[in-house]
Write a structure and sequence with these properties.
- By secondary structure, the protein is of the alpha+beta class.
- The protein has one domain (about 5-60).
- The protein has two helices and five strands, in the order H-E-E-E-E-H-E.
- It has a five-stranded mixed sheet, with helices on one face.
- The longest helix is centred in the C-terminal third of the chain and has 11 residues, at about 50-60.
- The chain is globular, with a radius of gyration of 12 Å.
- It starts with 6 loop residues before the first helix and ends with a strand.
- The relative contact order is 0.21.
Length: about 70
């Protein structure tokens, strides 16, 4: 980890490489500079916003399967 990047930002950016789904479709986590994370489906662009703490819990406890 680059010591010049605040820990919060580094954690948010780490979510970019996590494989997730939104309503069963492949998705990505984005919005790293925003107060809330956006999870967007790759094929359709459908998106939903979550708090960063909720994103962490869904990735850690539910395998990155988002429902919105």
């Amino acid at each position: 980890m680059n010591s010049n990047i605040p820990a919060k930002d580094a954690l948010r950016e780490a979510f970019a490489s996590v494989n997730v789904t939104l309503n069963g479709e492949p998705a990505k986590i984005c919005g790293f500079d925003n107060p809330f994370a956006t999870v967007a489906q790759i094929p359709s662009g459908l998106s939903a916003d979550w708090s960063w703490s909720a994103v962490g819990r869904i990735v850690d406890n539910h395998g990155g399967r988002f429902r919105g």
